[in-house]
Every structure is written in structure tokens, then in C-alpha cells.
Amino acid sequence: MNSCQAQRDPHTGIVRLDGEAMVFHCNHYNRFLQLVVEDCHYIRHEPILQDSAAEIAYRQLHSLFQQNPHWTPAERLAAAEIRYRYCGFGDLELSPAASGLEPAPLRLREQHSHYGCALRLNYGKRRQAGEFFDMGFAMGAVAASLDIAVHGRIASRAGEEPISMGGSQSQFLLFPAESDAHFPLDTPPPAPAELPEGADDVPERSFALHVDEDGIIEAVASLPLVGDEHGLIPAFGVTLTRHYADYYNLVSFRFERALDEALRTHKYLGEMLWYEYPSLFFYKDKFSHLQGHALARTLLIEAGHICGFNTMGGIMRSDPWYQLIVPQLRQREDWLAGIVACINALGWGVWRIAELVPNERLVLRAWYPYESLGHLRAFGRSEHPIDYLMTGIAASLMNLLYTADITQKPDLTLEFYYQVNRSKEGFWGHQTRCVAMGDPYSEVVVERNLL
Fold first, then answer.
1. Which of 161, 236, 292, 451 could tie 167 with a disulfide, CB 3.0–4.6 Å?
2. Quick check: is 86 in a domain?
3. Nearest Cα to Cα of residue 108 among 133, 85, 91, 88
């Protein structure tokens, strides 16, 4: 009754679970994107990270429960638990909420947390709990299951440190909200994205046609990429999540807007950010013109660099890659065709290689890119390109193939990442078309020292 299974649309590449668009991402991308939001001390990060999770979880589960009106609160919470584990977020126990939130606070626990473990990969010990997605999901799930407004916080005190701070479990305290101000239950779902003219005309592949993309997509879809007994998905040398596309979109675009506002109200913030974000400090030397909007864009693109290096690099070092895909490859450039075929199984839309000059230039296009679709749903048309993940991934693919030589299976360490992706001779992506701006597809051009 409460089982779940994501479904992929072969035309759009969009994968849905209970109506919500889902995309695969790894622990490195998840932790870096969160740190991008957390590390700016001039914006409030908790509403961006936690409330976005609550909003998306509530939206998905409320819709699911409307389709199953006979489910009891206990059955609803069980369904939410199953989806949390299936997607690789951890083993959050929601069943204690079945009896309600009185006496408050209600304490929920998890022994394994994707975000908790991911954040422990950072240097040094955290000073505050970081399971904001977990907390937000708990809020959204309980609100949808019990039809009540809730708010909550992560339990974090001596002897109760969460997983992200080195503890053995994470605990979340839920309280009834005195009003809907903390969590409005009547927020309407976003309208479907209004696509530009021609955006549904996905072309056939034109590059490396001997690579069986359909077979690769089917093979990737058949892999057991679901939560294990701990609710985690270890695969390709990383830990994956089947995550909400609109969680990433809300976090990214709300951060972008919050940082823009902070830059307008804090006179010297732009100069201070170079020192708060090491990646910006590096790119300052490389691209000295970065200001305003470009600061947020550079940080979000850097998250894409990290995702491309670790997830795509991990796939291209894996046994399934060598068993299924390498036998189809005739030359080095075919590695890009193979990895793009894998990407087209991840729910990110439909990507196509439009042009490739070996070791010099890549033009990558995407139809139904999840970032553009999310922006259209939540914020409408954009005045600037916003497919940040795609831009970062595209650059990392060229760096992996020609700078790192992924064909030799190098160890994908953090030090090697710095060497490869931050080389002054490395590749950089520049977005030239964007569905959120009204183009029929999004396009990224990757060249050496493009900017």
C-alpha cells in the first residue's frame, strides 16, 4: 500500500515520485550547496534550507494523501518514512507522531542521516547542527499527516550532538505552531512551468551514435539506487540521494535573492565575501570582474563543479561503467557521450552534445533542464541565465577528460579537485541560452579561460 517507485518520462527525462520531480545528486554536491548558503553570515540560512525542505515535503505528501483519503495518520507517517528511506535521506522515524504533538515537544530520531554524514566530510568540527533538510522534511511530513501547522528545531546540546556534529544520532523536536505563520498549510502548489515556444522539440542525438544511450539509460535505471537498510545510497564512490528538484531550485534561487539583498544593504559585503568563501578568493584572481549577481552565480556554479568532479568522475571509475559503457567507446571523446547518456537517466532533463572540439571546446544543450523549469514554476522568467548546476557540470566534464584524464582512473581526492578544476589552464563554462529566459533549450559553452 505504501510502496513507492519513481517513474521517468522518456521524452522529457523528468523523473517523478508521487508527482514531484526528483533528481539524483551526491553527498559532495549536497554538502557544498548547503555550505554556500550557511557561510554567508549576512543572510538567514535556516529559512532557506529548512523551510524549503518543509515546503516541498508537505507539497508532495499532501498530494499523495489526498489521493488516499482512507489512510490513517499512522499509515500516512509510514508512507512518509518509506519515501525518506527510498530516496536515501536516512532512517528518520516518524511513527511517534501518530499520537499527535501533545505533550510537546515531540522528539523524533534517526540513526543514519545523509546530510549528517555528508557534513562531517568538511574540515573541522561543526559548531551547530546541520540537518536542516531532515528537520524540514519532518515538519512537512508531520504537518501533512496530521493536518496541523508545526514548527521545530534540531536537538543539540552536550550529550545530544547530532550526527553532523559527531554524535551517534540526530534528534528533532516538533511543536504545534500557534499560527500558520511558521508553516502555512494553504500554500497553493506552483503552476506548471510555462515553456517557451519550441521547448518540447527535443532533437535526436548527433554525436557518437554508436554509443547506445537508450541501453545505458535503461541499465542505470535498473541499478538498485534506493536506500539500503540504513536509508542511504552508497554508489560510484559517493553517497547518492534521489532528491527533490525543487528543493535545490528553491535553495539556490532564494539564496541568490537573499545575497543580492544583502549586497545592496551592506556596503562592503562584496569585498568581505572573497574571504568568507575560499572558492571566490581563488576565482577573484582568475576573473577579477566578479561583482553583485556574479558572486552568487560563481558559488552555485562551483557546487556544479564539485558535483561533476565527484559524481560524474565516480561513475567513470566504477565497475558498471567499465562493464557496460567502455566496450562501446572507440575514442576518448566517446567518454563524453557515455557520461551524458548516464546524466540523461538522472532526472536532469535531456542533454545533447551539440559541438565538441577535442581538448578545446564543448557546446552542451539541455531540454527540460530542471533548474530552468523550477525557476519558471516558482519565480517566472529570469533576466539572466540560471542553470548553474549544468554550467558547472559541463566544465567539470571537460576537466575530467582532458585535465584529469579520467580514463586512467585517478583518485578523486579534494587535493586533486583543486589541481584540476582550479587550474588556470582549466576549462570554464559560460551559459549562452536559458529556458528560464525564454529560449527553447539551455546551452553552455565550455572553453579554456573563456572569461
1. 161
2. yes
3. 91
Considering the chain, what percentage of its residues have pLDDT values greater than 70? 91
- Tell whether the model's pLDDT for residue 184 goes beyond 70: no
Q: Is 98 exposed, middle or buried (0-12, 13-18, 19+ CB in 10 A)?
A: middle
- Grid cell 540537518 in the structure block, residue: 131
200 occurs within a structural domain:
no
For residues 268 and 359, membership in a common domain is answered with yes
Classify each residue of 193-219 as buried b or exposed e, where b means 16 or more C-beta atoms within 10 Å of its C-beta.
bebbeebeebeebeebeebebeebbeb
Pair (269, 166) in one structural domain: no
251 in a structural domain: no
Host H or E run for residue 106:
strand 106-110
Indicate if the pLDDT at residue 451 is higher than 50.
Answer: no
Q: Which of 176, 204, 223 is the last residue of a domain?
A: 176
Question: Is there a domain that residue 358 lies in?
Answer: yes
Q: Which residues contact 249 (CB under 8 A, 6 or more apart)?
A: 370, 371, 374, 375, 377, 378
Q: Are residues 231 and 147 in the same domain?
A: no
Name the phi and psi angles at 240, rounded to 5: -95, 160
Residue 152 DSSP SS3: strand
One DSSP character per residue, 344-364 reads TTTTS-EEEEEEEETTTEEEE
Domain span holding position 67: 13-176
293 and 376 belong to one structural domain: yes
Structure confidence by residue, pLDDT tens digits, 195-217: 999 999 999 999 999 999 999 99
pLDDT digits (tens, 9 = 90+) for 134-159: 999 999 999 999 998 899 999 987 77
165-170, long-range: CB within 8 Å, 24+ apart, which pairs? 165/125, 165/126, 165/128, 165/129, 165/130, 166/120, 166/125, 168/111, 169/109, 169/110, 169/111, 170/109, 170/110, 170/113, 170/116, 170/129, 170/131, 170/134
Residue 55 one-letter amino acid: E
Neighbours of 440 (CB within 10 A): 17
Contacts of 285 (CB under 8 A, 6+ apart): none
Domains held by the chain: number = 2
In this structure, what CATH number is given to the domain that contains residue 116? Answer: 3.30.1380.20
Domain final residue pick, 152, 176, 200: 176
pTM above 0.90, yes or no: yes
Same domain, 46 and 152: yes
